[in-house]
Amino acid sequence: MKKPLKLFGMIFSLVGVALLLLAGALAWHEHSFLKGAIETQGQVVDMIQSHSNGKEMSSPIFEFSLKDGTLVRGRSSVASYPPAY
Length: 85
Prior knowledge:
Layout: H1 2-36, E1 42-52, E2 55-65, E3 71-75
Antiparallel strand pairs: 1-2, 2-3
């Protein structure tokens, strides 16, 4: 009876340590990203319509400027119904 409980405890501990290490690695990755990132203001300039599961979904098209004045235009990978913007 003690052997299965000991095995269960060891497996549970190993999984816990692995998840703790994973959380630490993800936090370090995010910290490194944010250290080199810059904050900017942008705006939604258009909405693209698509269909999914019989519903009309909307994805925003946004624009922002880089420090050197270059205008960047992008499309969100997230669509919603109803439109969030």
